[in-house]
Design goal:
By secondary structure, the protein is an alpha+beta fold. The chain is built from ten helices and ten strands.
């Protein structure tokens, strides 16, 4: 049940993005859209709203007699409340003379709506359970691990002495550029470590607002650990090889002491790359 909930949560977040795509398209326009564009976007989002609410209901239902009604209301009403705000915004007399102001307010309210959505989703409780991926299931393993990464709100830290460039392609590509990313690895050679990822890391640090690549000595870095916000995950092989052979993946000790140990590893390392804002 708990791992199913994590999957449902990932799907819900993805489908929220799809539902709000017409609004996102308007927000990205350099020139202020006309009033008709807002009305069309509202109609498009409304057409998918009822189906999306069914996904919210599924996510907030844990058993026939265990339903998180308040959380359902908070999540499912985000699109409705936002549509109401925009309808009010474009309904004043002579509003067409203030399209730039409307566009600015629209983008502000859109950011607020997304923030409300993620905060409401966070209120639905679930816990991860360890999972054992069977051999020859790399795609299934990738999807399940990506679900854990999709939940990140603040930071993603990955500790892997054999880190290679596949990690960037598989897991960083879809991350919000405001997420704090810290990668900890060893010097390695042409196949892994700093010597393998230096070029792509240099590109990544120019996009992410808070990014660090840390080099540590091999003797202080053994197990592979993935820190998503305040949850620590442990896995056997590297993320890029999960499911190639029998693979353990699941929550690890996430106590204050455990976080301090990971922080100690970072502190002992050498900063190879960091984003310009650091």
């Amino acid at each position: 049940m708990k791992n199913i909930k994590s999957h449902q949560r990932d799907q819900l977040i993805m489908e929220f993005g799809i539902l709000f795509q017409p609004f996102d398209d308007l927000a990205l326009k350099e020139n202020a859209p006309n009033l008709e564009s807002y009305r069309i976007a509202i109609a498009k989002v409304l057409s998918g709203d009822s189906m999306w609410r069914e996904k919210v209901k599924e996510f907030t239902t844990f058993a026939q007699d265990i339903v998180f009604h308040d959380e359902y209301q908070d999540i499912s009403h985000v699109p409705e409340r936002f549509r109401g705000l925009i309808k009010e915004l474009i309904s004043y007399p002579n509003v067409s003379f203030a399209l730039d102001a409307i566009h600015k307010k629209f983008k502000e309210e859109l950011a607020n709506a997304k923030k409300q959505f993620f905060e409401s989703v966070e209120k639905v409780p679930f816990e991860w359970e360890p999972i054992l991926f069977e051999a020859n299931t790399p795609f299934t393993s990738y999807l399940r691990i990506k679900e854990s990464i999709a939940l990140v709100n603040n930071r993603l830290h990955y500790f892997d002495r054999y880190l290679n460039e596949y990690f960037f392609h598989l897991f960083l590509k879809f991350l919000d550029r405001n997420i704090s990313v810290c990668l900890i690895t060893t010097s390695g050679d042409s196949n892994y470590g700093i010597n393998n990822i230096l070029h792509i890391s240099d590109l990544v640090r120019q996009e992410f607002r808070n990014y660090q690549l840390i080099e540590v000595e091999p003797e202080i870095l053994h197990d592979r650990n993935l820190r998503i916000d305040d949850q620590i995950f442990n896995l056997g092989p590297g993320l890029d090889r999960a499911g190639m052979a029998l693979t353990n993946f699941g929550p690890s000790d996430s106590s204050v002491a455990a976080h301090l140990e990971l922080d100690k590893i970072i502190a002992q390392g050498r900063i190879v790359h960091h984003s310009e804002e650091l």
